[in-house]
Amino acid sequence: MRKEKNIKKESFMQAVFSLIFSQILIKILGLIYTLYLTNKEGFGDKGNAIYGSAYQIYAMLLTLSSIGVPNAISKLVAERTAMGDHKGANRIFKVAFATFAVIGLVGTLILFFGADFIANVVLQIPESKYTLLALSPAVFFVSIASVLRGYFNGRETMKVTAKSQSLEQIFKTIFTIVIVELIFTISSGNTVWMAAGANIATTLSIFLSFMYLFSLYKMNSKQIRNEIKQSVNYKYQRVKTIVKNILWVSIPMSLSSIMSSFNKNIDSFTVVRNLKKFMPEAEAQAQYGILGVKVDTLTSLPLAINIAFATALVPAISAAKAKNDKKTITKRVSFSLLASMLIGLPCTIGMIIFADPILHLLYPNAPDGALILQISAITIIFTILDQTINGTLQGIGKVMVPAISLGCGMLTKLVFNLILVPNPAFGVNGAAIGSVACHIVAFCIAFTVLRKNVKLDLTIGKFIIKPILATAIMAVCSYFLYSQLASGIIIEKWATILSILFAILIYLLAVIALKILTKEEIYMLPYGKKIYKVLERLGIYEKEAEEKL
Q: Are 275 and 426 a contacting pair, CB within 8 Å?
Protein backbone atom coordinates (compact mmCIF):
# COMPACT_ATOMS: atom_id res chain seq x y z
CA MET A 1 0.00 0.00 0.00
CA ARG A 2 1.13 3.52 -0.78
CA LYS A 3 2.11 5.48 2.28
CA GLU A 4 0.09 8.63 2.91
CA LYS A 5 1.97 11.67 4.15
CA ASN A 6 -0.04 14.69 5.20
CA ILE A 7 1.56 18.10 4.75
CA LYS A 8 0.56 20.75 7.27
CA LYS A 9 0.05 24.43 6.53
CA GLU A 10 2.69 26.86 7.72
CA SER A 11 2.58 30.35 9.19
CA PHE A 12 3.95 33.21 7.12
CA MET A 13 7.29 33.31 8.95
CA GLN A 14 7.60 29.51 8.96
CA ALA A 15 7.23 29.64 5.20
CA VAL A 16 9.77 32.46 4.94
CA PHE A 17 12.41 30.66 7.00
CA SER A 18 11.86 27.37 5.18
CA LEU A 19 12.55 29.19 1.92
CA ILE A 20 15.47 31.16 3.39
CA PHE A 21 17.20 27.97 4.52
CA SER A 22 16.57 26.38 1.13
CA GLN A 23 17.83 29.41 -0.80
CA ILE A 24 20.98 29.74 1.31
CA LEU A 25 21.76 26.07 0.70
CA ILE A 26 21.06 26.50 -3.00
CA LYS A 27 23.37 29.48 -3.31
CA ILE A 28 26.15 27.85 -1.31
CA LEU A 29 25.99 24.75 -3.50
CA GLY A 30 25.75 26.95 -6.60
CA LEU A 31 28.86 28.77 -5.48
CA ILE A 32 30.64 25.46 -4.93
CA TYR A 33 30.12 24.18 -8.46
CA THR A 34 30.80 27.64 -9.94
CA LEU A 35 34.10 27.75 -8.04
CA TYR A 36 34.85 24.22 -9.21
CA LEU A 37 34.19 25.09 -12.86
CA THR A 38 36.00 28.44 -12.84
CA ASN A 39 39.10 26.99 -11.20
CA LYS A 40 39.02 23.78 -13.24
CA GLU A 41 41.94 23.35 -15.62
CA GLY A 42 40.79 24.12 -19.16
CA PHE A 43 37.56 25.85 -18.09
CA GLY A 44 38.12 29.30 -16.51
CA ASP A 45 36.48 32.50 -17.77
CA LYS A 46 36.20 31.22 -21.35
CA GLY A 47 34.35 28.11 -20.21
CA ASN A 48 32.09 30.34 -18.12
CA ALA A 49 31.29 32.39 -21.24
CA ILE A 50 30.20 29.26 -23.15
CA TYR A 51 28.33 27.80 -20.17
CA GLY A 52 26.78 31.09 -19.01
CA SER A 53 25.65 32.45 -22.39
CA ALA A 54 23.77 29.24 -23.21
CA TYR A 55 22.27 29.12 -19.74
CA GLN A 56 20.87 32.66 -20.12
CA ILE A 57 19.14 31.69 -23.37
CA TYR A 58 17.74 28.60 -21.64
CA ALA A 59 16.57 30.77 -18.73
CA MET A 60 14.79 33.12 -21.13
CA LEU A 61 12.96 30.26 -22.90
CA LEU A 62 12.23 28.74 -19.51
CA THR A 63 10.60 31.95 -18.36
CA LEU A 64 8.52 32.12 -21.53
CA SER A 65 7.40 28.50 -21.28
CA SER A 66 6.66 28.61 -17.56
CA ILE A 67 4.91 32.00 -17.81
CA GLY A 68 5.22 32.87 -14.14
CA VAL A 69 3.55 29.66 -13.06
CA PRO A 70 4.59 29.33 -9.38
CA ASN A 71 3.38 32.75 -8.27
CA ALA A 72 0.33 32.74 -10.53
CA ILE A 73 -0.85 29.29 -9.43
CA SER A 74 -0.08 30.02 -5.78
CA LYS A 75 -2.14 33.24 -6.00
CA LEU A 76 -5.17 31.53 -7.61
CA VAL A 77 -5.01 28.48 -5.33
CA ALA A 78 -4.57 30.65 -2.20
CA GLU A 79 -7.63 32.72 -3.11
CA ARG A 80 -9.80 29.61 -3.56
CA THR A 81 -8.58 27.79 -0.43
CA ALA A 82 -9.04 30.97 1.65
CA MET A 83 -12.73 30.79 0.70
CA GLY A 84 -12.93 27.03 1.41
CA ASP A 85 -13.09 26.04 -2.25
CA HIS A 86 -10.56 23.19 -2.27
CA LYS A 87 -12.25 21.52 -5.21
CA GLY A 88 -11.84 24.64 -7.33
CA ALA A 89 -8.21 24.96 -6.25
CA ASN A 90 -7.43 21.38 -7.28
CA ARG A 91 -9.18 21.84 -10.61
CA ILE A 92 -7.05 24.92 -11.29
CA PHE A 93 -3.94 22.82 -10.61
CA LYS A 94 -4.94 20.00 -12.98
CA VAL A 95 -5.81 22.30 -15.86
CA ALA A 96 -2.60 24.29 -15.32
CA PHE A 97 -0.52 21.09 -15.31
CA ALA A 98 -1.86 20.00 -18.70
CA THR A 99 -1.57 23.49 -20.17
CA PHE A 100 2.02 24.07 -19.21
CA ALA A 101 3.07 20.57 -20.18
CA VAL A 102 2.22 21.56 -23.76
CA ILE A 103 3.86 24.97 -23.46
CA GLY A 104 7.00 23.44 -21.92
CA LEU A 105 7.26 20.88 -24.72
CA VAL A 106 7.15 23.68 -27.30
CA GLY A 107 9.96 25.48 -25.45
CA THR A 108 12.08 22.32 -25.44
CA LEU A 109 11.62 21.83 -29.19
CA ILE A 110 12.52 25.47 -29.92
CA LEU A 111 15.74 25.22 -27.95
CA PHE A 112 16.70 21.85 -29.42
CA PHE A 113 16.11 22.67 -33.10
CA GLY A 114 17.23 26.31 -32.80
CA ALA A 115 20.48 25.62 -30.96
CA ASP A 116 22.71 26.09 -34.01
CA PHE A 117 21.11 29.41 -35.02
CA ILE A 118 21.15 30.78 -31.46
CA ALA A 119 24.80 29.86 -30.89
CA ASN A 120 26.13 31.22 -34.19
CA VAL A 121 23.87 34.19 -34.93
CA VAL A 122 22.37 35.39 -31.64
CA LEU A 123 25.21 34.75 -29.18
CA GLN A 124 28.07 34.69 -31.68
CA ILE A 125 29.64 32.00 -29.48
CA PRO A 126 29.48 28.88 -31.75
CA GLU A 127 30.81 26.62 -29.00
CA SER A 128 27.61 27.14 -26.98
CA LYS A 129 25.55 24.99 -29.39
CA TYR A 130 26.15 21.77 -27.45
CA THR A 131 25.33 23.39 -24.11
CA LEU A 132 22.00 24.54 -25.56
CA LEU A 133 21.21 21.02 -26.77
CA ALA A 134 22.06 19.62 -23.34
CA LEU A 135 19.64 22.06 -21.66
CA SER A 136 16.69 21.66 -24.03
CA PRO A 137 14.82 18.83 -22.19
CA ALA A 138 14.99 20.82 -18.95
CA VAL A 139 12.49 23.40 -20.23
CA PHE A 140 9.68 20.82 -20.30
CA PHE A 141 10.36 19.44 -16.82
CA VAL A 142 10.73 22.86 -15.20
CA SER A 143 7.41 23.97 -16.68
CA ILE A 144 5.41 21.16 -15.08
CA ALA A 145 7.46 21.22 -11.88
CA SER A 146 6.59 24.92 -11.57
CA VAL A 147 2.88 24.08 -11.56
CA LEU A 148 3.40 21.63 -8.71
CA ARG A 149 5.42 24.18 -6.72
CA GLY A 150 2.78 26.83 -7.26
CA TYR A 151 0.05 24.46 -6.06
CA PHE A 152 1.90 23.59 -2.86
CA ASN A 153 2.76 27.26 -2.26
CA GLY A 154 -0.90 28.24 -2.63
CA ARG A 155 -1.80 25.61 -0.03
CA GLU A 156 0.68 27.31 2.35
CA THR A 157 3.05 24.31 2.35
CA MET A 158 6.20 26.00 1.11
CA LYS A 159 8.47 23.42 2.71
CA VAL A 160 7.70 21.26 -0.30
CA THR A 161 9.04 23.90 -2.69
CA ALA A 162 12.03 24.50 -0.42
CA LYS A 163 12.90 20.79 -0.28
CA SER A 164 12.46 20.26 -4.02
CA GLN A 165 14.70 23.22 -4.84
CA SER A 166 17.32 22.07 -2.34
CA LEU A 167 17.32 18.53 -3.74
CA GLU A 168 17.61 19.91 -7.26
CA GLN A 169 20.68 21.92 -6.34
CA ILE A 170 22.28 19.04 -4.43
CA PHE A 171 21.88 16.79 -7.48
CA LYS A 172 23.12 19.56 -9.77
CA THR A 173 26.28 20.10 -7.73
CA ILE A 174 27.09 16.39 -7.53
CA PHE A 175 26.31 15.71 -11.19
CA THR A 176 28.26 18.77 -12.38
CA ILE A 177 31.44 17.70 -10.63
CA VAL A 178 31.13 14.02 -11.58
CA ILE A 179 30.21 14.60 -15.25
CA VAL A 180 32.78 17.34 -15.84
CA GLU A 181 35.52 15.21 -14.25
CA LEU A 182 34.60 12.30 -16.52
CA ILE A 183 34.58 14.52 -19.62
CA PHE A 184 37.87 16.14 -18.57
CA THR A 185 39.49 12.71 -18.40
CA ILE A 186 37.96 11.41 -21.64
CA SER A 187 38.44 14.57 -23.75
CA SER A 188 41.78 15.71 -22.27
CA GLY A 189 40.24 18.90 -20.89
CA ASN A 190 38.08 20.03 -23.85
CA THR A 191 36.40 23.26 -22.69
CA VAL A 192 33.37 22.98 -24.99
CA TRP A 193 32.50 19.45 -23.92
CA MET A 194 33.01 20.27 -20.24
CA ALA A 195 30.59 23.21 -20.56
CA ALA A 196 28.02 20.93 -22.23
CA GLY A 197 28.51 18.34 -19.48
CA ALA A 198 27.84 20.94 -16.80
CA ASN A 199 24.49 21.68 -18.41
CA ILE A 200 23.63 17.99 -18.78
CA ALA A 201 23.91 17.97 -14.98
CA THR A 202 21.32 20.77 -14.86
CA THR A 203 18.84 18.77 -16.95
CA LEU A 204 19.25 15.60 -14.87
CA SER A 205 18.80 17.45 -11.57
CA ILE A 206 15.64 19.20 -12.78
CA PHE A 207 14.14 15.86 -13.85
CA LEU A 208 14.78 14.35 -10.41
CA SER A 209 13.30 17.42 -8.70
CA PHE A 210 10.12 17.03 -10.77
CA MET A 211 9.88 13.34 -9.84
CA TYR A 212 10.11 14.27 -6.14
CA LEU A 213 7.28 16.83 -6.44
CA PHE A 214 5.05 14.51 -8.46
CA SER A 215 5.51 11.58 -6.08
CA LEU A 216 4.73 13.84 -3.11
CA TYR A 217 1.52 15.00 -4.78
CA LYS A 218 0.49 11.40 -5.38
CA MET A 219 1.28 10.44 -1.75
CA ASN A 220 -1.03 13.22 -0.57
CA SER A 221 -3.92 12.29 -2.86
CA LYS A 222 -6.05 10.98 0.04
CA GLN A 223 -5.67 14.22 2.02
CA ILE A 224 -6.51 16.24 -1.11
CA ARG A 225 -9.62 14.10 -1.81
CA ASN A 226 -10.84 14.63 1.76
CA GLU A 227 -10.40 18.39 1.40
CA ILE A 228 -12.33 18.34 -1.87
CA LYS A 229 -15.24 16.51 -0.19
CA GLN A 230 -15.38 19.23 2.48
CA SER A 231 -15.16 22.01 -0.11
CA VAL A 232 -17.56 24.98 0.08
CA ASN A 233 -18.30 27.91 -2.25
CA TYR A 234 -17.44 25.79 -5.29
CA LYS A 235 -18.39 27.26 -8.63
CA TYR A 236 -17.98 25.08 -11.73
CA GLN A 237 -15.84 26.55 -14.51
CA ARG A 238 -15.17 25.17 -17.96
CA VAL A 239 -11.62 24.18 -18.84
CA LYS A 240 -11.46 27.01 -21.38
CA THR A 241 -12.44 29.52 -18.68
CA ILE A 242 -9.86 28.18 -16.21
CA VAL A 243 -7.07 28.32 -18.82
CA LYS A 244 -8.09 31.87 -19.65
CA ASN A 245 -8.04 32.84 -15.97
CA ILE A 246 -4.64 31.21 -15.41
CA LEU A 247 -3.11 32.93 -18.41
CA TRP A 248 -4.84 36.21 -17.51
CA VAL A 249 -3.04 36.14 -14.16
CA SER A 250 0.17 34.33 -15.09
CA ILE A 251 1.13 36.20 -18.25
CA PRO A 252 1.18 39.69 -16.68
CA MET A 253 2.70 38.24 -13.50
CA SER A 254 5.46 36.53 -15.45
CA LEU A 255 6.31 39.54 -17.55
CA SER A 256 8.61 40.78 -14.79
CA SER A 257 10.43 37.41 -14.91
CA ILE A 258 10.56 37.61 -18.69
CA MET A 259 11.91 41.14 -18.49
CA SER A 260 14.49 39.99 -15.94
CA SER A 261 15.61 37.22 -18.29
CA PHE A 262 15.73 39.61 -21.25
CA ASN A 263 17.69 42.00 -19.05
CA LYS A 264 20.41 39.40 -18.46
CA ASN A 265 20.41 38.53 -22.17
CA ILE A 266 21.09 42.15 -23.08
CA ASP A 267 24.62 41.42 -21.87
CA SER A 268 24.66 38.15 -23.85
CA PHE A 269 23.69 40.00 -27.02
CA THR A 270 25.75 43.18 -26.62
CA VAL A 271 28.89 42.63 -24.54
CA VAL A 272 30.97 40.21 -26.64
CA ARG A 273 30.07 41.71 -30.01
CA ASN A 274 30.87 45.26 -28.84
CA LEU A 275 34.04 44.35 -26.95
CA LYS A 276 35.36 42.64 -30.09
CA LYS A 277 35.53 46.08 -31.71
CA PHE A 278 38.62 46.96 -29.70
CA MET A 279 39.97 43.67 -28.23
CA PRO A 280 40.59 40.07 -29.36
CA GLU A 281 37.57 37.73 -29.37
CA ALA A 282 39.05 35.41 -26.73
CA GLU A 283 39.57 38.32 -24.34
CA ALA A 284 36.05 39.63 -25.05
CA GLN A 285 34.58 36.22 -24.18
CA ALA A 286 36.64 36.10 -20.98
CA GLN A 287 35.36 39.56 -19.96
CA TYR A 288 31.79 38.40 -20.51
CA GLY A 289 32.55 35.25 -18.49
CA ILE A 290 33.61 37.45 -15.55
CA LEU A 291 30.44 39.55 -15.75
CA GLY A 292 27.95 36.82 -16.60
CA VAL A 293 29.11 34.08 -14.23
CA LYS A 294 31.52 35.16 -11.48
CA VAL A 295 30.01 38.58 -10.76
CA ASP A 296 26.43 37.43 -11.33
CA THR A 297 26.93 34.50 -8.93
CA LEU A 298 28.31 36.71 -6.16
CA THR A 299 25.77 39.52 -6.48
CA SER A 300 22.88 37.04 -6.54
CA LEU A 301 23.92 35.38 -3.26
CA PRO A 302 22.12 37.95 -1.02
CA LEU A 303 19.02 37.69 -3.21
CA ALA A 304 18.67 34.06 -2.16
CA ILE A 305 17.81 35.07 1.39
CA ASN A 306 15.34 37.77 0.42
CA ILE A 307 13.52 35.83 -2.31
CA ALA A 308 11.84 33.92 0.50
CA PHE A 309 9.90 37.05 1.52
CA ALA A 310 8.90 37.79 -2.07
CA THR A 311 7.72 34.20 -2.65
CA ALA A 312 5.82 33.89 0.63
CA LEU A 313 4.17 37.30 0.24
CA VAL A 314 2.24 36.40 -2.94
CA PRO A 315 -0.12 33.74 -1.44
CA ALA A 316 -0.15 35.43 1.99
CA ILE A 317 -1.19 38.82 0.62
CA SER A 318 -3.62 37.21 -1.85
CA ALA A 319 -5.37 35.33 0.97
CA ALA A 320 -5.47 38.45 3.17
CA LYS A 321 -6.87 40.51 0.30
CA ALA A 322 -9.56 37.89 -0.37
CA LYS A 323 -10.63 38.33 3.28
CA ASN A 324 -10.20 42.14 3.10
CA ASP A 325 -7.66 41.93 5.96
CA LYS A 326 -5.77 45.23 5.48
CA LYS A 327 -4.07 45.03 8.88
CA THR A 328 -2.29 41.78 7.97
CA ILE A 329 -1.21 43.21 4.62
CA THR A 330 0.33 46.28 6.27
CA LYS A 331 2.06 44.23 8.95
CA ARG A 332 3.60 41.65 6.64
CA VAL A 333 4.63 44.06 3.88
CA SER A 334 6.22 46.53 6.32
CA PHE A 335 8.21 43.82 8.11
CA SER A 336 9.30 42.25 4.81
CA LEU A 337 10.53 45.60 3.47
CA LEU A 338 12.47 46.29 6.65
CA ALA A 339 14.01 42.81 6.53
CA SER A 340 14.96 43.39 2.88
CA MET A 341 16.70 46.65 3.77
CA LEU A 342 18.56 45.00 6.65
CA ILE A 343 19.69 42.19 4.33
CA GLY A 344 20.52 44.21 1.24
CA LEU A 345 22.36 47.25 2.56
CA PRO A 346 25.23 45.48 4.39
CA CYS A 347 25.62 43.00 1.51
CA THR A 348 25.98 45.87 -0.96
CA ILE A 349 28.57 47.75 1.07
CA GLY A 350 30.40 44.57 2.11
CA MET A 351 30.71 43.42 -1.51
CA ILE A 352 32.10 46.82 -2.52
CA ILE A 353 34.68 46.89 0.28
CA PHE A 354 35.85 43.29 -0.06
CA ALA A 355 35.45 42.81 -3.84
CA ASP A 356 39.11 42.12 -4.60
CA PRO A 357 39.80 39.94 -1.53
CA ILE A 358 36.64 37.88 -2.21
CA LEU A 359 37.64 37.23 -5.83
CA HIS A 360 41.14 36.17 -4.79
CA LEU A 361 39.69 33.95 -2.07
CA LEU A 362 37.12 32.19 -4.26
CA TYR A 363 38.79 32.25 -7.68
CA PRO A 364 42.56 31.98 -7.05
CA ASN A 365 43.13 30.80 -10.62
CA ALA A 366 40.97 33.55 -12.16
CA PRO A 367 40.68 36.50 -9.72
CA ASP A 368 40.06 39.30 -12.28
CA GLY A 369 36.97 41.51 -12.11
CA ALA A 370 37.10 43.53 -8.86
CA LEU A 371 35.86 46.79 -10.40
CA ILE A 372 33.07 45.02 -12.26
CA LEU A 373 31.98 43.41 -9.00
CA GLN A 374 32.11 46.70 -7.09
CA ILE A 375 29.90 48.44 -9.62
CA SER A 376 27.50 45.51 -9.90
CA ALA A 377 27.21 45.27 -6.10
CA ILE A 378 25.20 48.51 -6.09
CA THR A 379 22.36 46.60 -7.77
CA ILE A 380 21.95 44.33 -4.73
CA ILE A 381 20.02 46.72 -2.48
CA PHE A 382 17.66 47.88 -5.24
CA THR A 383 17.05 44.34 -6.54
CA ILE A 384 16.32 43.01 -3.05
CA LEU A 385 13.80 45.76 -2.27
CA ASP A 386 12.26 45.32 -5.70
CA GLN A 387 11.79 41.58 -5.07
CA THR A 388 9.73 42.27 -1.96
CA ILE A 389 7.73 45.07 -3.55
CA ASN A 390 6.93 42.93 -6.60
CA GLY A 391 5.70 40.06 -4.39
CA THR A 392 3.34 42.49 -2.68
CA LEU A 393 2.11 44.05 -5.91
CA GLN A 394 1.41 40.63 -7.40
CA GLY A 395 -0.44 39.61 -4.25
CA ILE A 396 -2.77 42.65 -4.34
CA GLY A 397 -3.47 42.19 -8.03
CA LYS A 398 -1.15 44.85 -9.50
CA VAL A 399 0.51 42.19 -11.63
CA MET A 400 1.49 44.47 -14.53
CA VAL A 401 3.46 46.97 -12.44
CA PRO A 402 6.58 44.78 -11.87
CA ALA A 403 6.77 44.10 -15.61
CA ILE A 404 6.37 47.75 -16.55
CA SER A 405 8.93 48.95 -14.00
CA LEU A 406 11.53 46.38 -15.03
CA GLY A 407 10.73 46.99 -18.70
CA CYS A 408 11.60 50.66 -18.23
CA GLY A 409 14.76 49.62 -16.42
CA MET A 410 15.65 47.19 -19.19
CA LEU A 411 15.38 49.89 -21.85
CA THR A 412 17.62 52.07 -19.69
CA LYS A 413 20.21 49.28 -19.50
CA LEU A 414 20.09 48.68 -23.25
CA VAL A 415 20.86 52.34 -23.91
CA PHE A 416 23.75 52.31 -21.41
CA ASN A 417 25.17 49.09 -22.90
CA LEU A 418 25.03 50.35 -26.48
CA ILE A 419 26.71 53.63 -25.54
CA LEU A 420 29.25 52.54 -22.91
CA VAL A 421 30.38 48.99 -23.80
CA PRO A 422 31.85 49.92 -27.24
CA ASN A 423 33.80 52.73 -25.53
CA PRO A 424 37.27 51.45 -24.50
CA ALA A 425 37.18 53.78 -21.48
CA PHE A 426 34.28 51.72 -20.07
CA GLY A 427 34.18 48.36 -21.84
CA VAL A 428 32.53 45.62 -19.78
CA ASN A 429 32.22 48.07 -16.85
CA GLY A 430 29.63 49.89 -18.95
CA ALA A 431 27.38 46.84 -18.79
CA ALA A 432 27.68 46.81 -15.00
CA ILE A 433 26.78 50.53 -14.88
CA GLY A 434 23.79 49.78 -17.11
CA SER A 435 22.58 47.14 -14.64
CA VAL A 436 22.77 49.64 -11.77
CA ALA A 437 20.75 52.21 -13.74
CA CYS A 438 18.22 49.50 -14.68
CA HIS A 439 17.47 48.45 -11.11
CA ILE A 440 17.32 52.01 -9.77
CA VAL A 441 14.69 52.91 -12.36
CA ALA A 442 12.69 49.70 -11.70
CA PHE A 443 12.75 50.23 -7.92
CA CYS A 444 11.62 53.86 -8.09
CA ILE A 445 8.60 53.02 -10.25
CA ALA A 446 7.52 49.97 -8.22
CA PHE A 447 7.95 51.69 -4.85
CA THR A 448 5.90 54.68 -5.98
CA VAL A 449 2.99 52.39 -6.92
CA LEU A 450 3.31 50.42 -3.67
CA ARG A 451 3.04 53.58 -1.55
CA LYS A 452 -0.19 54.49 -3.33
CA ASN A 453 -1.83 51.09 -2.73
CA VAL A 454 -0.54 49.76 0.60
CA LYS A 455 -0.27 51.57 3.91
CA LEU A 456 3.24 51.06 5.29
CA ASP A 457 4.18 51.13 8.97
CA LEU A 458 7.74 52.41 8.44
CA THR A 459 9.45 55.64 9.44
CA ILE A 460 12.53 57.19 7.79
CA GLY A 461 14.54 56.65 10.97
CA LYS A 462 13.64 52.96 11.24
CA PHE A 463 13.76 52.11 7.54
CA ILE A 464 16.67 54.24 6.31
CA ILE A 465 18.73 56.08 8.94
CA LYS A 466 19.25 53.24 11.44
CA PRO A 467 20.12 50.58 8.81
CA ILE A 468 22.61 53.00 7.20
CA LEU A 469 24.18 53.70 10.60
CA ALA A 470 24.46 49.97 11.41
CA THR A 471 26.02 49.31 8.00
CA ALA A 472 28.51 52.18 8.44
CA ILE A 473 29.62 50.79 11.81
CA MET A 474 30.09 47.37 10.21
CA ALA A 475 32.03 48.77 7.24
CA VAL A 476 34.48 50.84 9.28
CA CYS A 477 35.18 48.13 11.86
CA SER A 478 35.56 45.24 9.40
CA TYR A 479 37.76 47.14 6.96
CA PHE A 480 40.00 48.32 9.79
CA LEU A 481 40.40 44.72 10.96
CA TYR A 482 41.13 43.52 7.41
CA SER A 483 43.76 46.21 6.83
CA GLN A 484 45.51 45.20 10.05
CA LEU A 485 45.35 41.44 9.45
CA ALA A 486 46.31 41.64 5.78
CA SER A 487 49.35 43.81 6.55
CA GLY A 488 51.32 40.70 7.43
CA ILE A 489 49.81 39.22 10.57
CA ILE A 490 48.18 36.28 8.73
CA ILE A 491 47.83 35.18 5.10
CA GLU A 492 45.38 37.16 2.99
CA LYS A 493 42.68 34.52 2.52
CA TRP A 494 42.30 34.04 6.28
CA ALA A 495 42.27 37.81 6.74
CA THR A 496 39.35 37.96 4.29
CA ILE A 497 37.38 35.17 5.97
CA LEU A 498 37.89 36.51 9.50
CA SER A 499 37.02 40.07 8.44
CA ILE A 500 33.77 38.97 6.78
CA LEU A 501 32.74 36.92 9.83
CA PHE A 502 33.63 39.87 12.06
CA ALA A 503 31.54 42.16 9.81
CA ILE A 504 28.49 39.92 10.25
CA LEU A 505 28.89 39.88 14.03
CA ILE A 506 29.39 43.66 14.29
CA TYR A 507 26.37 44.29 12.06
CA LEU A 508 24.09 42.07 14.15
CA LEU A 509 25.26 43.79 17.33
CA ALA A 510 24.69 47.22 15.74
CA VAL A 511 21.12 46.24 14.70
CA ILE A 512 20.42 45.12 18.27
CA ALA A 513 22.04 48.16 19.89
CA LEU A 514 20.09 50.56 17.66
CA LYS A 515 16.82 48.71 18.48
CA ILE A 516 15.79 48.60 14.83
CA LEU A 517 13.40 45.68 15.45
CA THR A 518 10.41 45.94 17.79
CA LYS A 519 9.41 43.29 20.31
CA GLU A 520 6.69 41.99 17.96
CA GLU A 521 9.17 41.75 15.05
CA ILE A 522 11.72 39.90 17.18
CA TYR A 523 8.97 37.46 18.20
CA MET A 524 8.45 36.68 14.50
CA LEU A 525 12.01 35.35 14.27
CA PRO A 526 12.90 31.71 15.05
CA TYR A 527 13.22 31.42 18.85
CA GLY A 528 12.12 35.05 18.97
CA LYS A 529 10.73 34.92 22.51
CA LYS A 530 13.97 33.45 23.88
CA ILE A 531 16.03 36.03 22.00
CA TYR A 532 13.94 38.87 23.42
CA LYS A 533 14.26 37.56 26.98
CA VAL A 534 18.06 37.52 26.60
CA LEU A 535 17.99 41.11 25.31
CA GLU A 536 15.82 42.09 28.29
CA ARG A 537 18.31 40.56 30.71
CA LEU A 538 21.12 42.46 29.01
CA GLY A 539 19.18 45.69 29.47
CA ILE A 540 19.01 46.42 25.76
CA TYR A 541 15.21 46.12 25.57
CA GLU A 542 12.66 46.89 28.23
CA LYS A 543 9.07 45.74 28.54
CA GLU A 544 6.87 47.35 25.91
CA ALA A 545 10.06 48.81 24.42
CA GLU A 546 8.62 48.68 20.93
CA GLU A 547 6.24 51.50 21.76
CA LYS A 548 9.19 53.79 22.46
CA LEU A 549 10.89 53.23 19.11
A: no
